[in-house]
Sequence to fold (291 residues):
Amino acid sequence: MELTYRTLERFGLNEKEIQVYLACLKQDITSPYQLSKITKIPRTTIYDILLNLSLKGLVQLEQSDGFTKQQTKVKANNPSVLRKILQDKRNYLVDLELDVVDILPSLKQDFHKEKANVNFKFYPGVEGLRKLYRDRSFDLIEAERYTWDLLMPMDMIGHEEINRIVDAQNEAYKLRKYPSKEIVSLNDWTKHVLSYQYGRNPLYIENREIRYIENPVFNLSVELNIVGNVIRIACANGEENWGLSMNSISLSSTLKSIFLLEWDRGTPVTKELVESWGPNEMIEYEKRRDK
Fold:
Protein backbone atom coordinates (compact mmCIF):
# COMPACT_ATOMS: atom_id res chain seq x y z
CA MET A 1 0.00 0.00 0.00
CA GLU A 2 2.89 2.35 0.74
CA LEU A 3 4.21 1.88 -2.81
CA THR A 4 0.72 2.57 -4.20
CA TYR A 5 0.40 5.84 -2.27
CA ARG A 6 3.93 6.93 -3.18
CA THR A 7 3.44 6.15 -6.87
CA LEU A 8 0.07 7.90 -7.13
CA GLU A 9 1.56 10.89 -5.35
CA ARG A 10 4.34 11.02 -7.95
CA PHE A 11 1.64 10.73 -10.62
CA GLY A 12 0.25 14.01 -9.33
CA LEU A 13 -2.46 13.14 -6.81
CA ASN A 14 -2.60 14.59 -3.31
CA GLU A 15 -3.41 12.55 -0.23
CA LYS A 16 -7.18 13.06 -0.29
CA GLU A 17 -7.37 12.46 -4.05
CA ILE A 18 -5.57 9.15 -3.53
CA GLN A 19 -8.02 8.12 -0.81
CA VAL A 20 -11.04 8.92 -2.95
CA TYR A 21 -9.56 7.34 -6.10
CA LEU A 22 -8.75 4.06 -4.32
CA ALA A 23 -12.24 4.02 -2.84
CA CYS A 24 -13.76 4.49 -6.32
CA LEU A 25 -11.76 1.53 -7.67
CA LYS A 26 -13.34 -0.76 -5.08
CA GLN A 27 -16.89 0.23 -6.09
CA ASP A 28 -18.68 -0.51 -9.32
CA ILE A 29 -20.73 2.67 -9.31
CA THR A 30 -20.79 4.95 -6.31
CA SER A 31 -21.78 8.46 -5.28
CA PRO A 32 -20.25 11.45 -3.48
CA TYR A 33 -22.35 10.62 -0.45
CA GLN A 34 -21.04 7.04 -0.26
CA LEU A 35 -17.46 8.14 -0.86
CA SER A 36 -17.77 10.71 1.94
CA LYS A 37 -18.91 7.97 4.32
CA ILE A 38 -16.08 5.61 3.26
CA THR A 39 -13.22 8.16 3.35
CA LYS A 40 -14.56 10.40 6.19
CA ILE A 41 -13.93 13.39 3.92
CA PRO A 42 -16.67 16.09 3.97
CA ARG A 43 -19.09 15.85 1.05
CA THR A 44 -18.40 19.45 -0.05
CA THR A 45 -14.71 18.56 -0.39
CA ILE A 46 -15.54 15.27 -2.13
CA TYR A 47 -17.17 17.13 -5.02
CA ASP A 48 -14.02 19.18 -5.67
CA ILE A 49 -11.83 16.07 -5.46
CA LEU A 50 -14.05 14.14 -7.89
CA LEU A 51 -13.96 17.03 -10.34
CA ASN A 52 -10.14 17.01 -10.23
CA LEU A 53 -10.00 13.22 -10.68
CA SER A 54 -12.39 13.52 -13.63
CA LEU A 55 -10.27 16.21 -15.27
CA LYS A 56 -7.25 13.93 -14.88
CA GLY A 57 -9.13 11.14 -16.65
CA LEU A 58 -9.27 8.74 -13.69
CA VAL A 59 -13.05 8.72 -13.01
CA GLN A 60 -16.29 9.34 -14.89
CA LEU A 61 -19.03 11.56 -13.47
CA GLU A 62 -22.67 11.33 -14.49
CA GLN A 63 -24.45 14.41 -13.24
CA SER A 64 -27.99 14.44 -11.86
CA ASP A 65 -30.63 15.55 -14.38
CA GLY A 66 -31.83 18.22 -11.93
CA PHE A 67 -35.41 16.91 -11.85
CA THR A 68 -34.85 13.87 -9.69
CA LYS A 69 -33.16 13.39 -6.38
CA GLN A 70 -30.68 11.00 -7.93
CA GLN A 71 -27.14 11.93 -6.91
CA THR A 72 -24.16 12.25 -9.24
CA LYS A 73 -22.94 8.82 -10.23
CA VAL A 74 -19.21 8.09 -10.00
CA LYS A 75 -17.38 5.31 -11.82
CA ALA A 76 -13.64 4.73 -11.90
CA ASN A 77 -11.95 4.25 -15.25
CA ASN A 78 -9.82 1.16 -15.84
CA PRO A 79 -6.54 1.75 -13.93
CA SER A 80 -4.64 1.08 -17.18
CA VAL A 81 -5.56 4.65 -18.04
CA LEU A 82 -2.71 5.70 -15.71
CA ARG A 83 -0.17 4.32 -18.14
CA LYS A 84 -2.04 5.73 -21.15
CA ILE A 85 -1.95 9.18 -19.55
CA LEU A 86 1.81 8.87 -18.97
CA GLN A 87 2.39 7.74 -22.56
CA ASP A 88 0.42 10.72 -23.85
CA LYS A 89 2.43 13.04 -21.60
CA ARG A 90 5.68 11.50 -22.82
CA ASN A 91 4.73 12.01 -26.45
CA TYR A 92 3.69 15.57 -25.71
CA LEU A 93 6.96 16.31 -23.90
CA VAL A 94 9.09 14.81 -26.68
CA ASP A 95 7.25 16.96 -29.22
CA LEU A 96 7.64 20.00 -26.95
CA GLU A 97 11.35 19.30 -26.48
CA LEU A 98 11.88 19.33 -30.26
CA ASP A 99 10.23 22.75 -30.44
CA VAL A 100 12.30 24.01 -27.50
CA VAL A 101 15.50 22.86 -29.24
CA ASP A 102 14.49 24.93 -32.27
CA ILE A 103 13.99 28.14 -30.28
CA LEU A 104 16.94 27.74 -27.89
CA PRO A 105 19.57 29.35 -30.19
CA SER A 106 17.52 32.55 -30.36
CA LEU A 107 16.80 32.57 -26.62
CA LYS A 108 20.46 31.89 -25.72
CA GLN A 109 21.61 34.65 -28.05
CA ASP A 110 19.46 37.10 -26.07
CA PHE A 111 20.64 35.65 -22.75
CA HIS A 112 24.39 35.70 -23.49
CA LYS A 113 24.23 39.02 -25.38
CA GLU A 114 27.36 38.11 -27.38
CA LYS A 115 29.55 38.81 -24.36
CA ALA A 116 32.59 36.75 -23.39
CA ASN A 117 31.83 34.51 -20.42
CA VAL A 118 35.36 33.11 -20.12
CA ASN A 119 38.23 35.24 -18.86
CA PHE A 120 41.46 34.89 -20.79
CA LYS A 121 44.65 36.84 -21.42
CA PHE A 122 47.18 36.36 -24.18
CA TYR A 123 50.90 36.99 -23.63
CA PRO A 124 52.67 37.42 -27.00
CA GLY A 125 56.38 36.88 -27.57
CA VAL A 126 59.29 36.19 -25.25
CA GLU A 127 58.43 39.19 -23.09
CA GLY A 128 54.91 37.82 -22.75
CA LEU A 129 56.38 34.52 -21.53
CA ARG A 130 58.43 36.38 -18.93
CA LYS A 131 55.31 38.17 -17.66
CA LEU A 132 53.41 34.90 -17.47
CA TYR A 133 56.15 33.18 -15.45
CA ARG A 134 56.63 36.18 -13.17
CA ASP A 135 52.95 36.13 -12.21
CA ARG A 136 53.04 34.13 -9.01
CA SER A 137 49.28 34.41 -8.30
CA PHE A 138 48.82 31.11 -10.13
CA ASP A 139 50.88 29.29 -7.47
CA LEU A 140 48.73 30.74 -4.67
CA ILE A 141 45.45 29.19 -5.85
CA GLU A 142 44.37 26.58 -3.29
CA ALA A 143 43.43 23.64 -5.49
CA GLU A 144 45.04 20.54 -6.96
CA ARG A 145 47.56 21.38 -9.65
CA TYR A 146 47.92 19.34 -12.83
CA THR A 147 50.79 20.02 -15.23
CA TRP A 148 52.00 18.65 -18.52
CA ASP A 149 55.53 19.89 -17.98
CA LEU A 150 57.67 20.75 -20.97
CA LEU A 151 60.50 21.73 -18.57
CA MET A 152 61.01 25.07 -20.27
CA PRO A 153 64.50 25.85 -21.64
CA MET A 154 66.36 28.38 -19.50
CA ASP A 155 67.26 30.56 -22.47
CA MET A 156 63.66 31.72 -22.74
CA ILE A 157 63.61 33.81 -19.55
CA GLY A 158 67.15 33.44 -18.26
CA HIS A 159 69.08 30.93 -16.17
CA GLU A 160 68.97 32.84 -12.90
CA GLU A 161 65.36 33.94 -13.21
CA ILE A 162 64.01 30.47 -13.95
CA ASN A 163 65.91 29.14 -10.92
CA ARG A 164 64.35 31.87 -8.76
CA ILE A 165 60.93 30.86 -10.05
CA VAL A 166 61.62 27.17 -9.28
CA ASP A 167 62.90 28.09 -5.79
CA ALA A 168 59.74 30.10 -5.11
CA GLN A 169 57.62 27.17 -6.30
CA ASN A 170 59.53 24.78 -4.01
CA GLU A 171 58.72 26.97 -1.02
CA ALA A 172 55.11 27.48 -2.07
CA TYR A 173 54.54 23.77 -2.60
CA LYS A 174 55.68 23.02 0.96
CA LEU A 175 52.74 25.08 2.25
CA ARG A 176 50.14 23.85 -0.22
CA LYS A 177 47.22 21.84 1.13
CA TYR A 178 46.65 20.23 -2.25
CA PRO A 179 49.02 18.01 -4.23
CA SER A 180 50.85 19.07 -7.37
CA LYS A 181 50.91 16.44 -10.11
CA GLU A 182 53.18 16.72 -13.15
CA ILE A 183 53.58 14.57 -16.23
CA VAL A 184 56.77 14.75 -18.32
CA SER A 185 57.95 13.04 -21.46
CA LEU A 186 61.11 11.12 -20.61
CA ASN A 187 63.98 12.01 -22.91
CA ASP A 188 67.52 13.37 -22.66
CA TRP A 189 66.30 16.93 -22.13
CA THR A 190 63.84 16.14 -19.34
CA LYS A 191 66.41 13.93 -17.64
CA HIS A 192 68.82 16.85 -17.70
CA VAL A 193 66.31 19.31 -16.21
CA LEU A 194 65.06 16.91 -13.54
CA SER A 195 68.55 15.95 -12.42
CA TYR A 196 69.69 19.60 -12.51
CA GLN A 197 66.85 20.91 -10.34
CA TYR A 198 67.08 17.91 -8.02
CA GLY A 199 70.80 18.60 -7.65
CA ARG A 200 70.06 22.20 -6.74
CA ASN A 201 67.36 21.29 -4.23
CA PRO A 202 65.94 17.79 -3.48
CA LEU A 203 62.61 19.48 -2.62
CA TYR A 204 62.06 19.75 -6.36
CA ILE A 205 61.21 16.03 -6.37
CA GLU A 206 59.93 15.68 -2.80
CA ASN A 207 57.27 18.42 -2.97
CA ARG A 208 55.90 17.35 -6.33
CA GLU A 209 54.34 14.18 -7.65
CA ILE A 210 56.00 13.69 -11.03
CA ARG A 211 55.35 10.85 -13.42
CA TYR A 212 56.93 10.23 -16.78
CA ILE A 213 55.69 8.66 -19.98
CA GLU A 214 58.41 7.07 -22.09
CA ASN A 215 56.88 6.85 -25.52
CA PRO A 216 58.01 8.62 -28.71
CA VAL A 217 54.37 9.36 -29.53
CA PHE A 218 54.03 11.40 -26.33
CA ASN A 219 55.78 14.65 -27.20
CA LEU A 220 55.02 17.93 -25.42
CA SER A 221 55.38 21.21 -27.32
CA VAL A 222 53.81 23.43 -24.65
CA GLU A 223 53.70 23.55 -20.87
CA LEU A 224 50.09 23.28 -19.72
CA ASN A 225 48.99 23.92 -16.12
CA ILE A 226 45.56 23.55 -14.55
CA VAL A 227 44.73 24.80 -11.05
CA GLY A 228 41.05 24.86 -10.14
CA ASN A 229 39.33 26.44 -13.13
CA VAL A 230 42.44 28.36 -14.23
CA ILE A 231 44.51 27.15 -17.19
CA ARG A 232 47.94 28.48 -18.00
CA ILE A 233 49.79 27.57 -21.20
CA ALA A 234 53.35 28.51 -22.11
CA CYS A 235 54.89 27.86 -25.52
CA ALA A 236 58.55 28.32 -26.49
CA ASN A 237 58.84 26.02 -29.45
CA GLY A 238 60.73 27.06 -32.58
CA GLU A 239 59.32 30.34 -33.84
CA GLU A 240 56.38 30.23 -31.41
CA ASN A 241 56.78 32.14 -28.16
CA TRP A 242 53.60 32.99 -26.31
CA GLY A 243 51.60 32.45 -23.15
CA LEU A 244 47.90 32.15 -22.36
CA SER A 245 45.95 32.36 -19.12
CA MET A 246 42.29 31.36 -19.07
CA ASN A 247 39.52 30.78 -16.52
CA SER A 248 37.10 28.15 -17.82
CA ILE A 249 35.15 25.50 -15.93
CA SER A 250 34.43 23.46 -19.08
CA LEU A 251 37.95 23.42 -20.49
CA SER A 252 39.64 22.85 -17.13
CA SER A 253 37.39 19.88 -16.28
CA THR A 254 38.00 18.37 -19.75
CA LEU A 255 41.77 18.76 -19.47
CA LYS A 256 41.79 17.32 -15.93
CA SER A 257 40.00 14.18 -17.09
CA ILE A 258 42.54 13.69 -19.90
CA PHE A 259 45.42 14.38 -17.52
CA LEU A 260 44.21 11.81 -14.97
CA LEU A 261 43.92 9.15 -17.69
CA GLU A 262 47.55 9.75 -18.62
CA TRP A 263 48.53 9.96 -14.96
CA ASP A 264 47.40 6.38 -14.42
CA ARG A 265 49.70 5.26 -17.25
CA GLY A 266 52.72 7.19 -15.97
CA THR A 267 55.68 5.93 -13.93
CA PRO A 268 56.69 7.85 -10.78
CA VAL A 269 59.86 9.95 -10.88
CA THR A 270 61.66 9.20 -7.61
CA LYS A 271 64.91 10.48 -6.17
CA GLU A 272 66.34 6.97 -6.65
CA LEU A 273 65.51 7.17 -10.35
CA VAL A 274 67.05 10.62 -10.74
CA GLU A 275 70.18 9.61 -8.83
CA SER A 276 70.54 6.55 -11.06
CA TRP A 277 71.16 8.89 -13.99
CA GLY A 278 74.34 10.06 -12.33
CA PRO A 279 75.45 13.62 -11.42
CA ASN A 280 74.26 16.47 -13.58
CA GLU A 281 77.10 18.00 -15.58
CA MET A 282 75.79 21.55 -15.28
CA ILE A 283 75.52 21.26 -11.50
CA GLU A 284 79.08 19.96 -11.35
CA TYR A 285 80.28 22.84 -13.52
CA GLU A 286 78.47 25.44 -11.38
CA LYS A 287 80.04 24.00 -8.23
CA ARG A 288 83.51 24.22 -9.73
CA ARG A 289 82.91 27.74 -10.98
CA ASP A 290 81.64 28.95 -7.60
CA LYS A 291 84.72 27.73 -5.76
Q: What stands out?
A: The first helix runs from residue 2 to 11. The beta strands are 59-62, 73-76, 119-124, 145-148, 180-185, 209-213, 223-227, 230-237, 240-247, 267-268. The chain has a mean pLDDT of 87.
